């Protein structure tokens, strides 16, 4: 099989294409022939940082979609099933023609949903669903989403609007029209140097802020949150409470999607996969929209991921594998 492999911390363009022996699934696993590979910021971050559990030759990549071509003992999922997946960061991943996954961590792809779209969704869709699950229902309550123009933010805006929240989207103004059409009630330009002050001047006490920028940025937004409100961190976490004790009484939440592979019990993993399948069906039925995609050949993977890191992609790249 072909795989883009990591050798040491560096740039996406440092990945090396290698021809490797095709792995075989063990008990409880499936072998997937990838038809498409999704790219996410977490991919370039781990390529940049490295990890003690990554060795020379590790295959990065968390998102992919394809067809099950072999199963290990005890697997009920039929060969030929169309699936999408979010792979553990600590296993060989999706940047390959074939990937081995735990059978209980794949999602069936509905008829009518192409592999490229399916591969672009697992990480952002599951992340968005976990973020919203932190919030108790509160119809009409204002929720601020930062980095709302990205893949996670685009889905958050739609899911929050569907749940009845008043959605405020903070993102570059080039995304405002698209997000307004998807359910955002208010859009602000987070590139403006005074955007936080402008939000404060509106006098809106936010029920929740869902931040995808950084723990530092999330802490800066804490004063905008109402008493007994919620601060949800998708990037980083709040190691220290951002406000003094016994003031706004904020609830602090972290989203740690990768931890589901090693720290969630079987029922929680099954529930997350069921949520993912429902979201894939929503996209197939056009009840949800992802961000605009650009299909590229597998050989273009390092350059496409580098362009994501450098902020140079107008559309979200997805790698489509040549079949046959």
UniProtKB/TrEMBL annotation:
GO terms for molecular function: mRNA 3'-UTR AU-rich region binding; NADPH binding; quinone reductase (NADPH) activity. Signal peptide: none annotated. The keyword NADP applies. CDD domains: MDR5. One of its GO terms (cellular component) is cytosol. Keywords: NADP, Oxidoreductase. Residues 10-319 form the Enoyl reductase (ER) domain. InterPro entries: ADH-like_N, ER, GroES-like_sf, NAD(P)-bd_dom_sf. It comes from the Bacteria. The keyword ATP-binding does not apply. This is Zinc-binding dehydrogenase. It comes from Craterilacuibacter sinensis. The lineage of its organism: Bacteria, Pseudomonadati, Pseudomonadota, Betaproteobacteria, Neisseriales.
